[in-house]
Write a structure and sequence with these properties.
Blueprint (H helix, E strand, L loop, with lengths): L6 H8 L15 H7 L4 H6 L2 H22 L3 H14 L5 E3 L7 E3 L6 H19 L5 E3 L8 E3 L12 H23 L1
Antiparallel strand pairs: 1-2, 3-4
Helix pairs in contact: 1-4, 1-6, 4-5, 4-6, 5-6
The chain binds zinc ion (2 copies).
The site of one zinc ion has 5 residues, from strand 2.
């Protein structure tokens, strides 16, 4: 499997908080964390308040990596990523579960937080080195601050979603119309 695809885990964690709304945080209690781990039965069953506290802290630190890249400070972003890589080392194993061919899994041991974050930061590290660090993006459709990975071939992505792209286009169109109207009057 393509290890850079694990970078999606980082995006998914950061985007559990929608900074454009006062009630936009989906990781406020253990029920929220269990919902977040819905597709990871082992983590869902064993996660604790400690995981909740750690996942919330890591979420902020991962957001900082995206925000620093967005602000043009790639070296600082990569230092922060390196710190996370050191704190959450991967523990790779080869496995042939469910009749699949032998393949690599990054991290199957440790707490739910350790397993999740080790994969997420290794995925980010793979993506920024196979492509470039500026592939880490923050949505440009104000007030949205969701993060995303730009894997487009021409590095053109600016928004987290189609919805935000549409909203930004409509806003730009209205601004142009207003300008034309005031120029005509
Ligand atoms: Zn597998
Ligand atoms: Zn957005």
């Amino acid at each position: 499997m393509d290890l850079s695809s694990y970078a999606d885990l980082a995006v998914r964690l950061v985007n559990t908080e929608d900074l454009s709304r006062p009630d936009g945080d989906h990781l406020t209690d253990l029920a929220g964390l269990r919902a977040f781990f819905a597709d990871r039965p082992r983590s869902r069953a064993t996660c604790t308040k400690n995981d909740l506290r750690e996942m919330r802290a890591i979420r902020g630190r991962l957001r900082a990596v995206f925000e620093l890249v967005e602000a043009g400070d790639v070296p600082h972003a990569m230092r922060k990523l390196n710190t996370l890589l050191g704190e959450f080392p991967v523990r790779p194993i080869v496995t042939d579960h469910d009749d699949s061919d032998w393949h690599l899994h990054l991290s199957e041991s440790g707490s739910p937080t350790q397993r999740y974050v080790a994969r997420a930061v290794f995925g980010l590290a793979t993506l920024v080195t196979e492509l470039t660090p500026d592939r880490l993006g923050v949505c440009q459709s104000d007030p949205c601050r969701f993060v995303f990975l730009d894997t487009s071939t021409n590095r053109s992505r600016r928004y987290c979603s189609e919805r935000c792209a549409t909203r930004a286009n409509v806003a730009a169109y209205r601004a142009r119309r207003k300008e034309q109207a005031s120029a005509a009057s």
